[in-house]
Each structure stands twice: as C-alpha cells, then as structure tokens.
Amino acid sequence: MQKILLSLAAVLLMTGCSMDNKNEVSENNAKNNLTKVNNSTIKEADRHTGQQTAKRLTGLAKSIPEVNDATAVVLGKYAIVGIDIDQDIERSQVGTIKYSVGEALKHDPDGANAIIVADPDLNERIREVAKDIKDGKPVTGLLNELADITSRVIPEVPGDILTPTPSKNIDKEKNKLDDKTERTELDKEQNDQSNHFKE
C-alpha cells in the first residue's frame, strides 16, 4: 500500500513540475515576441558633408536626358532630390525620367534611398530648404519642412483601408477566463480601445 501511495505521489509531483515548466516556456516565448526598431532620429546633421552629397546627387540627376535642373537636400542618411523637367512632357514619360534618375542614384551609397520628386511645387520647396541649409538656418525647422514634403510624396495609408489582423493569442487568453463578467468587461474595453472596429 505504501509503495502505491509513494508511486502515486512521485507521479503527481512530476506531473505538477512539468506543468509548471510549460508555463515558464510560454512566458519566455511571450517575452521573445518583442519587436525591435532602430532609432531613426538625426542626432547631428553635418551640413558640410550633406551639402557635398547633395551637390553630387544633383550632378547625377542632371546627367539624365530631359532633366533641366535638379536640387537635392541631404540630412544624415535621408535625401530628397527634386528634378525640373519640361511642363509639356506626358505623365508616363515623367515616370520614366524619375526611374532613370533613380537608377543613376542607386549606385551612389547616399542616393540609394533617395526620394525623387518631379512636382514643380515640391521642387521649389526643396530648393528653399537647400538655400536655408546653405544659409545656416536651424535644422529643426528644416526637418519639419522635409517631413511635410515627404508626407506629400509618401502619404500615410488610412487605417480604414488596412484590415488589422487580430492576434489569435488574445482570443486564447480570453477563453481562459472563467468569469463571464470578466470576459464581457474585457470585450467592452477592447472594443472601446479599437474605436468599435468589430461592431
């Protein structure tokens, strides 16, 4: 009888410990699902190097046929190149010219990720920013202007267009709740936080 009780106690002890280990593993996995991002803030912009790079990128852009003039602004690893082309060129041809400029800039390490703009208004704004940099104006205001220009070129996609993919883990955890009132409160809170997306 004692052997049976001792064996049963040993089995229960091992089963209990293995259940405890599974919880530790799932907690460790939850901690490993972190998303890491790079800090993309520009700490200090070297105006002299940026102006030299802008001059080089401008030269590369001007070397493309149909490009009358070009302007570039470089702050850190970011560059925007504005190209001036004839107004009577068709839209499809503008895309081809921008592609050609992109191909020319692709081989330059500072121009590989440059944004190319052919819009006359944006080109003029880029020209003004380049002049402000040359005149030594504060970088903070220039960064705001560049952010404004970039947001016109690369607009944000509205959240309504993108359908968020809900995490299955949340639903699994929600199903573990025993109390219906807790589950209802959690549903209400999630619904409020998602701006009533599920309704």
UniProtKB/TrEMBL annotation:
GO biological process: sporulation resulting in formation of a cellular spore
Annotated keywords: Lipoprotein
Plastid as UniProt keyword: no
Keyword Lipoprotein: yes
InterPro entries listed in its UniProt record: Spore_lipoprot_YhcN/YlaJ (IPR014247), Spore_lipoprot_YhcN/YlaJ-like (IPR019076)
Basic and acidic residues composition-biased segments: 169-199
Region annotated Disordered, chain positions: 157-199
Annotated protein name in UniProt: YhcN/YlaJ family sporulation lipoprotein
UniProt lineage: Bacteria, Bacillati, Bacillota, Bacilli, Bacillales
